């Protein structure tokens, strides 16, 4: 059993309806003691400030170890993601059905590439 599983850590999802539904069907859905869910469905009517508020709320919850976010949604709050440098919760950008993953846009991957020289990658 992993450390996160033993300590009751959660996965959070910020994404489109299909992404959230898939993860919820996989069993990740939880409500905390204040009845706040660990997922947010983003659609055309969702404002950037709502996404930022949700991300910041997930970031401040001790029980959340990983935040998964659709990359197209992450692009809308890129400045917030770039400012997040804490190791936990880890933030992973994932593709959505309508938007493929682009490694050049991923903040974490860009930061990781900056830690290595070209010789390290050979």
From TrEMBL:
Assigned GO CC terms: proton-transporting V-type ATPase, V1 domain
Keyword Ion transport: yes
Keywords assigned by UniProt, alphabetized: Hydrogen ion transport, Ion transport, Transport
InterPro entries for this protein: ATPase_V1-cplx_f_g_su, ATPase_V1-cplx_fsu_euk, ATPase_V1_fsu_sf
Entry GO MF terms: proton-transporting ATPase activity, rotational mechanism
Quaternary structure, from the entry: V-ATPase is a heteromultimeric enzyme made up of two complexes: the ATP-hydrolytic V1 complex and the proton translocation V0 complex.
UniProt xrefs under NCBIfam families: V_ATP_synt_F (TIGR01101)
Similarity section: Belongs to the V-ATPase F subunit family.
Function: Subunit of the V1 complex of vacuolar(H+)-ATPase (V-ATPase), a multisubunit enzyme composed of a peripheral complex (V1) that hydrolyzes ATP and a membrane integral complex (V0) that translocates protons. V-ATPase is responsible for acidifying and maintaining the pH of intracellular compartments.
Protein name, per record: V-type proton ATPase subunit F
Species of provenance: Owenia fusiformis (Polychaete worm)
């Amino acid at each position: 059993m992993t450390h996160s599983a033993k300590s009751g850590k959660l996965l959070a999802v910020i994404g489109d309806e299909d992404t959230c539904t898939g993860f919820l069907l996989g069993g990740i859905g939880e409500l905390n003691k204040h009845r706040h869910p660990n997922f947010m469905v983003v659609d055309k009517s969702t404002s950037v400030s709502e996404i930022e508020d949700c991300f910041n709320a997930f970031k401040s919850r001790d029980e959340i170890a990983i935040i998964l976010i659709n990359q197209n949604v992450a692009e809308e709050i890129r400045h917030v993601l770039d400012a997040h440098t804490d190791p936990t919760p880890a933030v992973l950008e994932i593709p959505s059905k309508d938007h493929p993953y682009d490694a050049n846009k991923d903040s974490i991957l860009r930061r990781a590439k900056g830690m290595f020289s070209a010789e390290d990658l050979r």
